[in-house]
Protein: MalT-like TPR region domain-containing protein
Organism: Streptomyces noursei
Amino acid sequence: MYGKAFAPEYQGELGSALSVNSSYEEVLATAHRTLADADTALARSRAQLAVAEANRRLGRADAAGAAWRAAYRSARTAGDPAAMAWALWSGGTLARQCGTLALARRLLGHAVALAETGGDRLAHGYSLAGLAETGRIQGDYAAVAELHQQLLDQARAHGEARHMVWAMSGIAQMHRNTGEHRKALELFEESARIAAEADDFRGRAWSLRGVADVLSVRGEPDRALALLSEAETICRTMDLAGALAYNHKMRGNVLYRAGRYAEARDTYTGALHEFRAMGEPRGEALSRLGLAKSRARLGRDRARTLAELDLLERDFARIGLRHAREMVIAFRTELTATPAAGTPAPRSGATTLRSPAVPARS
């Protein structure tokens, strides 16, 4: 069994004023008011953490970075290791969102240690979850698959729906990326159901995106697009800038797989602008890959496409995205194997653009 979803990152006074489904503009306004009234270092740290998380999810990386550092300094002044852990969790999650995965690992590793010292089970679990997600984004499935399962078991034992949804969709993503589509679909659909029953709207939006991805690979683009529209409504209602951009990129994937290349090109272009506006290099690079593939199908000069693929391969290697780099190599191989006069569409499900991860959902 599990209860309604909650947001443990909103602590103290903020915990009673905000819910997991509060819009992030509301979170930001409430956190700033709380910060202005804070009379202890710990209260300041908690408010600054909420400011950091709201800005991160609104795609405002610079403001989020300044806020989590301020939260950490206040927590250190208060001498509270658990509060320090939450601040580092926020900073590590932001680092992952910004594509600096080595920094994300360092910050989240320190957060795990501080949470253990402070005896905060939730901060410890969230920080471990952040490490697991970072490894999954990098494509290091062997290293993090067991950790994902352990975190899912812990979430079930404590009835924490939000973490159940996170862990389950993470496991589903690994199944999807290794070609086990039936199992991936089962897990994504279960996580979407749990999120709905627990009133975790953000978790449902991410889970629906996963369901849509697998349905698209299975040749059901209309169902996939309908689910993405439902998820988009949630993202807009909650001011989820990053999730909305990834939703649009997935829409591009679905259109591309359906052979609707002009629509896919335009959709990837829009997602690319969204990612650039929020300084999200991972999403930007994935959108550039989709855009390059769509343009190739529409007859773009092959030499220009190959040059773009070379740039993307270097970018994915720099960020540390193994699975995405493999996609670039696969498409280059396919492209160079075809006659120069044309680039026919791939078979259903073959060399399709696959999202290596679901970002920054904690």
